[in-house]
Amino acid sequence: MNFWDGLPRPFTALAPMEDVTDVVFRHTVARAARPDVFFTEFTNVDAFASWRGRASTAGRLTFTSDECPIVAQIWGTKPENFALTASALERMGFSGIDINMGCPAKDVVKIGGGSGLIHTPALAAEIIRTARAAVELPISVKTRLGYSKADEYKEWLPVILGEHPANLTVHLRTRKEMSNVPAHYELIPEIIALRDDISPETKLSINGDITDWAQIKEIHNKYSAVDGYMIGRGVFSNIYCFDGSEHLASRDELIRLFRFQLDEYDKYKRIDPTFLGDYEPNDRVLRRDFNGLKHFVKVYIKDFPTAADLRAKIYACQTTDEIRTVLNNANLS
Length: 333
Known about the structure:
The structure is a single chain. By secondary structure, this protein is an alpha/beta fold. The chain has two domains: 3-237, Alpha-Beta Barrel (TIM Barrel); 251-329, no CATH class. It has 16 helices and ten strands. The chain has helices spanning 23-32, 45-48, 51-56, 58-61, 79-92, 106-109, 121-134, 153-161, 188-198, 213-222, 234-237, 251-268, 290-293, 297-300, 307-315, 320-329, and strands at 11-14, 38-44, 70-75, 96-101, 139-144, 167-171, 203-207, 228-231, 270-271, 286-287. The strands form two sheets. The protein has an eight-stranded parallel sheet with strand order 1-8-7-6-5-4-3-2. Strands 9-10 form a two-stranded antiparallel sheet. Helix 8 packs parallel to helix 9.
């Protein structure tokens, strides 16, 4: 059941991003140029452990079978809730489970989750073991080099590799660095050596400042022992970033793709939590955030003379039909 073993080499992945990589945007990326692996947004295992909290996670766990292989990314601090959540995700049909040990968000770190686990390596190891014992799915981990200093990877990564995850994705920065400094590509050879020494069966992926296939080829030519490459923010500057032909989209192509995302939003805007199991329905209707859809406008409406004016009109819209009307009336000659 380890899908990681069947991937091309190098493989590509769309990074898990909060309020970004939901089913709507993943489908849109696939329409443009599909990566080899999709990841969901982050799901809090402690929230998932309660019905009220579980319902709130439904939107981020919606997926379709044509997205496989798709990995559910989870975070938290309680091993028993990792086991509970992992077991449920396996029943839902996910291809794998990824444990977030790299998120730098303050509200996550302050409770010891995400990159906060770098401070508690014994707990991090226990979480991986507990999740693996609960399922037959492959367990992977995404993390950073360290919390404050880049050389913390020498002590931190062996802890994770010692648990033999199916895949280890390393964001080549520390939590303190956020995304404010260039990724530390110079450390890739040493990370490869650690992987080869401790857990040679673990796939190694890198993340940080990767923008497109051209860059992936350049990096892979230099570090051929890397198995995969994950693109995060680069998708916003080029949604065709996974296209091996290095496609440069025209204005009209981008607008057509935006229309597709609007259609997908309408299709999935109502969130039905019943797929999570024995959910107890109530009068509350869960809906995908419409204002969140507007965050993607700059992905499509850019690099032509009237783009700023058109974006302003779209930002004022309150429905997808209003956005379509603005697009239909736009002067794009």
